[in-house]
Write a structure and sequence with these properties.
58% of the residues lie in helices and 10% in strands. The protein folds into two domains: 40 residues, no CATH class; 166 residues, Butyryl-CoA Dehydrogenase, subunit A, domain 3. The chain has eight helices and five strands. The chain has a three-stranded antiparallel beta sheet. The protein has a two-stranded antiparallel ribbon with strand order 1-2.
Length: 209
C-alpha cells in the first residue's frame, strides 16, 4: 500500500471557494474556474487568529460579570448577569432551560476559547503532538461555531422567561454587548485559523526522516 501524500507533496492546491484542484503555484494567483484568490495557506492565519482570540478572551470576563439586562416593573427593577439568570431559572424549576443556557453561554464559549488557544500555541511552536486529534478538535469547534449565535439569543431567552407584569421594561446592559462581541470574535478566530498548519511540521519531519 502506497503512503498517503499531502496536497503539497503531490504538487497541487485547492481553491477555497469551488474546491477546484490546481497545480501548486505561488499564492495570490486566481482560480481558473471561479476567479477566487489561491493561497497555499490562509494569509497571516496565525496573526489574525491570535488577534481575534485575545480580543475574545479579554471580553469574556466582562461578558459574564457585567449585567446583560435590567427588568423593571411597577414593583421595582432587577438586574441580571448570565450566571444569575441561570441561577434564577434553576431555582424557578426550569432545570432543562437552565442547563441549556448554562451550556450555550458558559461551557461552549470556554470550550471554543480553550481549543483555539491550544491550537494556535501548538502550531506556533510547530508541535507534532497528536495532529489527528487536534484536527478533530478544530472540526468540533467549526461544528459548534455554526450554532454560535445561539449564545446571543440567550439574552432574548432570559428576557422572555422572566415573569413580568403587564407594565414592564427590559433594558439591555453592557454585558450583552460584550457577550455578543465574544461570540463574533470567536467565530472570526475559528474562520481565520488554517488547520493545514497543524500538519506542516509533520511534513517537514517526514522529509528529514
Amino acid at each position: 500500500m502506497s503512503p498517503v501524500r499531502t496536497a503539497a507533496q503531490a504538487g497541487v492546491m485547492e481553491c477555497p471557494q469551488c474546491s477546484a484542484i490546481h497545480p501548486r503555484r505561488r499564492g495570490g494567483t486566481a482560480c481558473d474556474r471561479c476567479g477566487a484568490a489561491l493561497h497555499l495557506r490562509k494569509p497571516d492565519s496565525l496573526h489574525r487568529t491570535w488577534a481575534f482570540l485575545l480580543a475574545a478572551m479579554a471580553l469574556y470576563l466582562p461578558a459574564n460579570i457585567l449585567p446583560i439586562m435590567t427588568t423593571g416593573t411597577l414593583l421595582g427593577s432587577q438586574t441580571n448577569t448570565i450566571l444569575s439568570g441561570v441561577v434564577y431559572l434553576w431555582e424557578d424549576g426550569s432545570y432543562f432551560v437552565a442547563a441549556v443556557v448554562f451550556c450555550a453561554s458558559i461551557v461552549i464559549p470556554i470550550f471554543k476559547l480553550a481549543v483555539l488557544l491550544m491550537l494556535v500555541v501548538t502550531v506556533q511552536v510547530r508541535s507534532t503532538w497528536r495532529p489527528v486529534e487536534r484536527t478533530r478538535l478544530y472540526g468540533m469547534v467549526e461544528a459548534v461555531g455554526r450554532w454560535s449565535m445561539v449564545d446571543v439569543f440567550v439574552v432574548a431567552l432570559l428576557a422572555s422567561l422572566v415573569r413580568l407584569d403587564a407594565l414592564a421594561t427590559v433594558r439591555p446592559e453592557p454585558g450583552a454587548i460584550a457577550f455578543g462581541a465574544v461570540v463574533v470574535l470567536t467565530m472570526l478566530a475559528s474562520m481565520s485559523f488554517d488547520p493545514r498548519l497543524i500538519w506542516d511540521p509533520i511534513d517537514a519531519h517526514d522529509k528529514q526522516a
